[in-house]
Structures
1.
Amino acid sequence: MSAPLLEVRHLVKHFARKHGLWQPASIVKAVDDVSFAIEEGEMFGLVGESGSGKSTTGRCILRLIEPTSGEVLFRGENVLGFSRARMRQARRDLQIVFQDPYSSLNPRMRAGDIVEEPLVIHKLGTKTERRARVEELFELVGLDAAHLSRYPHEFSGGQRQRIGIARALALHPALVVADEPVSALDVSIQAQVVRLMLDLKERLRLTYLFIAHDLRLVENICNRVAVMYLGRIVEMGETRALFAEPRHPYTRALLSAVPVLDPDTPRQRVPLDPASFDPAAPLRQVATAHWAAV
Amino acid sequence: MTAPLLDVQQLTVLFEGARSTVTAVDNVSFQVAAGETLGLVGESGSGKSVTAFSILRLVPPPGRIAGGRVLFEGRDLLALPEREMRQIRGARISLIFQEPMTALNPVMRVGDQIAEALTVHGQATRAQAWARAVELLDAVHIPDARRRVRDYPHQLSGGMRQRVMIAIALACHPALVIADEPTTALDVTIQAQVLDLLRELRARYNLALLLITHDFGVIAEMADRVAVMYRGAVVEEGPVRQILRSPAHDYTRALLAAVPGMERR
């Protein structure tokens, strides 16, 4: 077996939380010893509820937030040990698509310039070559190249997310961290953007870390999934196995909370009893390609 | 057949700009019977929230109700004097908003906010209202209600705040509750708890519910009937099973096809 494209080892991120001038700060363990690996060509889902640490994990991998400790190996090299210059180079391979297509695009830049900016920063190509590449990217994500000189507010939410995707793809990345890329969009638009992401994955041989809270979506598009709860991965495995036979009490509670689209299917909510599991239990293998912290 | 609790007839709402007029709600009609839940489903801009606000005559300007009737308990709300309308708003018909943090007053104790709903409508003295606030927090399953009633909204989690909103909505024993995306801002496990709570309270108080949402999962769990809105108009209406299993309108079909996991079921 070849080495994974991305390997996260014992990733930890603590935030100090200040309560007042004279009170001691407390520590929030946003990411608490998280390890997983993503093979090339995978769509790896990282799911959890707000505060579970899934977005912080994604940002630590790209060093948009500096982790407290741990290792992030990309093609075997520890990204966290990179110098500033080396990190900038690595960012060509590691890109991110943000959740909110409204706040993640500079409202005072034209769409074409937004997509071109990574090429400018990395000093790639001449002005003409860059423009040609931007037009190519626009077409790749299903936007009209005639709209290059429009500003973000002139696009709809779904189109803006396409701009964000085009920007992420400008440098031919190997890994795209998609941080809730469709959760701000209407459901019919979500389906279009997801279809685009899957299509691009095949065409450009991309690997995704897909961060989401929508379990129905993850079940449909990710081949493997890790479930985060309070900063830790409590369960991880092949999507089908994990959804069919969740082992961790939190995963069971989470899956049972997802509304069922059939009014005649009896609802069987599994309440979460925090006393029913050991929050410090390490992941152990419970079946083929299936781990749980039980 | 008895008259429905709410009978919206040919409601039209316009937003008039300097250069153009947008028809946000276009000749919309639907009915809600006592104790029934109607799901009003659509995407952003479909006019579902404006429809709900129109029922309470709370359309923000430049929006304007241009036509139609809203019959509630036999009276046309659109023809009532404002003074009488105020006795219906929050009392006979109440509203639960999507965002509990912005809908609650941040500098008022939650107990006072519940009590206010009662005293404004002259349904209780201050002392009675406070006691009733504790009861209501208990009814929405907020643990330790006697102490929590003194909390400010920021001291409560998102799910707890939504429970407070529901307590306020229930304070005056409404016949109809309009819930505008009541669980959209919540995590899925908290959403499940709030939906369970709404289901329980609906049965206990025989509430009619107008549930506005974009989520067919929530519809499937809660609604008896569904009206699908698209570009200001109701394009399809019917019992929930019929709409989910054999949608007739192209837009409904497209919307259902877009829900992840729908195609396999």
Note: Chain A touches chain B at residues 49-50, 186-191, 194, 213-217, 219-221, 253-254, 256-264, 267, 269, 272 (CB under 8 Å).
2.
Amino acid sequence: MIEALAILYLWFLVYLLSIWLNQMVQQQYGVAKNPYLV
Amino acid sequence: MNGLDSKHYWINYFIVSFLLCMLTSLNMYIFGAYIIDITFFQQTSFMLIWLTFIGWAIAQVALTSFVQIFISNSKTATIVGYLLSIFSTIIGEVISTIIFPLPMRMPFGLLLYPPFALCRIIYYMGWSCSETTGCYRSLEGMRP
């Protein structure tokens, strides 16, 4: 149970990673031209 | 970015989403503990329940911002968001209660996905309430 709780908090690192990835995607492709977007 | 530079945009995004989650959790807690009088909410440690809610809010914000990388259309984002939210919880409950019931341990890899981790925590807390030992009344009483 403690490990599951710790994992939930560690997802904050995924948030930081996704900020970086979001910015990478926008810089490389622009929001409208991104070929990976659905 | 709504006119904000990226740093302030992401800080705001986190704060607003986190507060929304906290409001929803508070609503649920008030109804569960004081209006419907559910034993789970009344007897389980307040600290433990709120530690779980805060962790869940952080994980939810992180998951949505991660999914945003792949979705630009708001309609698609809404549909994918609801599908993830509803189906993940159903699947998480099935995995937790039927496939890996106590005393079995859930594989660590499955816990890495936040809805599955949340379902497991709630399962542990609910199970504890149904046992003779009673609900988790303090953080020290938590069994791994």
Note: The longest helix of chain B spans residues 6-35.
